[in-house]
## 1
Amino acid sequence: MIGIIDGYPEPDTKSPLLEFDVQGGGVVATALVACARLGLSTRYIGKVGTDFWSRASLRTLSREGIDVRHVLRAPGSPGHVSLVLADRTSGARTLFYRRPPAYAVRPEEMDRAALTAGRLLHVDGIDAAAALQAIRWAREAGMKVTMDGERIVEGIEAVWPLVDLLVCNPRFVGLITGRATVEEGLRELARGGPSRVAVTLAEDGALGLEEGRWVRVPGFRVPVVDTNGAGDVFHGACALGELRAWPLEWTLAFASAVAAMKCRTLGGRRGIPRLPEVIAFLDAHGRRDIARALE
């Protein structure tokens, strides 16, 4: 559930909702929607409940062409829902969420064949033990692995060093490494295992490190309506770059463009563009090199 407000109200007051919508969400799920709209074949493996919201979430993924046949169920559990309030002026948002404990995925629940049927695995690491097992299987199957470094959970320190591309937010970098600056933190992460690391910087684009070389990508300027889901969309777009074996600068620039385009529309998913739209956007914003590679 997403609402647009005109500034955050004081406590014990009432404030009108300027816009309201209900869309699917979720860190990995929204990344997969981006992948699907960019032309990739996708499969979601996670856990949902059995209530109205759970059924609705699977329907929204199925409509995008995402394979949900291997989704796990938590019988009797309510759905994972979020309430997002976005400020009309800045596009900044605050998210309130409910993730029932029954949603935790255990390693023994996972289907190895289903997990290793693709070319790339994308994880968020929230269920660290399950993510660790999935990454090990993916590695043995020769798959690439990307990770959304968003939240610090118990066991996450064993997960992120095993991925090929780690893209995280500044808070994750600081908490994991204890370094004072993003640059110092990325250097520490790069020494920890991933061959490529990057941090998203909202409207300022992204900063990455690949084989000891810094990669700086400016943000694309667009009229911002809602930033909700922009990071998830960024990760989905990164998957395409990884599968094409692009240099990190191309991957981050492409992902920045896709995420910026999403921010022009309310909600985390409705504004996710399809590949022809992205090609036109890149062409119009000085990245004909990437656009040509996608044609």
## 2
Amino acid sequence: MSHVLNLARMAIALMLLPMAGCDLAPKPLNTKHVDEGDPTRGLALVAGGSYGCAACHAIPDVRFPKGNVGPPLAGMAGRSLIAGHLPNKPGVLVAFLQDPPALAPQTGMPNVGLTTEQARDIAAYLYTLEAPDGS
């Protein structure tokens, strides 16, 4: 009986061995980071109304208005493209926010005169929006 028990223990140990080197910690969805960007300031800029972001976009942290001209911003961190063809990378997003028509001439998004700092802050905020449903 102890021989069978030892074999069972050895079999279990052999089955678990490949998992010994596995990192079972969940990986964060958002791996995008905007140097010098402050997501709190970015939310304030987006929600403040000075640039009209919510007039065109549904934004998870902004209750009203819920624009539907541009795409909803929920899930922005997980998208692979900006404006349908630009890679969703921090530097590209910052440049796009500063002058959308320069990077995507067909876009309906206007140049609203963001400074580099403001664009970084807004990009940092947008990269906090991981879930496509806004949760």
## 3
Amino acid sequence: MTLIAIDAGHGYETPGKRSPDGMREYAFNRAVAAECIKQLEKASLKTLKTHHDTIDVSLKNRTDKANQAGADFFISIHANAFGNGGWNEVSGIETYIHSTKGNNALTLAKQIQTSLIQGTGRKDRGVKKENFHVLRESSMPAVLIECGFMTNREEKALLASTDYRVKCGELIAGAIISYFKGSEATSASKKTGNALYRVQAGAFSTQAGAAVLAAKLKKAGFDAFITESK
């Protein structure tokens, strides 16, 4: 069964991870992660939680847990910040992967980014590559999502709202579900081959003979054509 590691970034007491007016980033991260987990499990995708509500789990312990469990993907959920901790106008959603993780991470990251932008209407800051620990040290494809800026007044209000948290969780999960259901369909297609099986009704030494049989088959309602074999 597919196993998705869901990581709510940081912890309640992680230094500096707050909005200018005191909202803890982890409060947002864990709420989105919880909704994401709920939606994934509804879709029969198994999940692994790498964070903990009472302690700030180290980055190494998070990736070690996912690696040891053999997770298929690592998804880290965050809220962003810019500048020296004060309010500013920088805004939008961005998603990160590591440069060594290949096409699977990039494909899922693009799907998550598109889902969030279309679903929230926030500024699209794109999919980027970065050397973050959880992206680099996870042995599976990994994606880190920044769902908006705590240092932007408008986005901080969204990040603090239950509706936006639930929406982000649903949109991230929806993209993951779409990715894996699409992969399953592709795999099934490859197994069956989507093959076409042709029936040969005859072989003739002259084109005229072949044309006579082709005409009879067409009259009977069959799709018939003539090919030359040498």
## 4
Amino acid sequence: MTFGSRLREYRDHRGWSLGDLARATHFSRSYLSNVENGRKPATEDVARRCDEALRAKGELIAAARHDATTKLNDRPWQTAELISRLQTSDTTPNTIEALHSTVEELCCQYNRRDAMELRTEAHEWLQYVGSLLRRPVGLKAHTDLLVAGGWLALLAGCVEYDLGMGTAAESTRVAAAQLGIEAGHPEIVGWGHEMTAWFALTQGRFRQAVDASRRGQAVAQSTSVQVQLIAQEAKARARLGESGLTTLLESGRDLLAELPYPDRPDNHFKVDPAKWDYYSMDIHRMAQDNAQASEYAGSVIRDNIAPDGTELSPMRIAECRLTLAFVAGREGDLEEAVDLGVEGLKDGRQSKVHLRMIASELDQELRRRFPGEGAVGGLEDAMRAV
């Protein structure tokens, strides 16, 4: 689907006129009309601003890039072609740039692609990057390859943990952090700490999660991962029973507001305002602030469903449904709570360990609120299948 068609689809889905979009993006209505109707190409800037205004989660940016690619005389980069160039030591700036584009695209597929397929492809690319690093290349190319390898290792480690491969995920995480150190790349190093915090959080080691979050914030200040680390710290402190986390949440939101809006908000390793709402939802759920938790859950679900009904981030939507299940249980509606809980645990792209943590917290709360009720068993059955 062309950029113009996707733009019109998202605009209609939000109930916006071209005038509304013009006011939000600061482009003229006539210019946007020409872009939407294909009379003018969508520049990177207009795609980014429209994507941000319509909360398209990178879909409009991707559509604009696809349009630009199809207009080139040369065929677009394909995996086999890029590998061939890399294998012949054609580590020119254009080749390295194409490699980084491929890595970013893989990172953007994290939320929706089959986990095992994504892990396999990430490992294949890691092997090729590794073979290049064993060859004589220039200093800049060497650093660029270390960075590409670092992002690929982070991605592979996240997917491995999603699949329940904890030992492999930790080994991959260590390798990613080491690549980040060698490349002098604080953000990759910071994501290594973030993964440590995430692993500890989902395994119930909340104090270690706080410590890892703090270490990561110290090495990756004023970056996207610092925002994520603040969120992980807040999640862990909430489960330690600490109160007064509003200040910590506000510090994360303030930092996020200072950072540039990501070109690809669907990149797993970038944090945007919509993702921050998702993190805040967890804190408010743990604090039993039901109204705010429910509001965030509804907003995140709406933002992650495309006009055609496709779930753009199945894992995020799953946790939102579990959050709504908590709220239903607290309001006395056990049947609705179980139904929403089972819906949140349905088959699809899942972060298994993370999902089990939230579902277990839900199961414990429902059993406490509804002792002896057999209906809670339906949630337990669904948990067993995860």
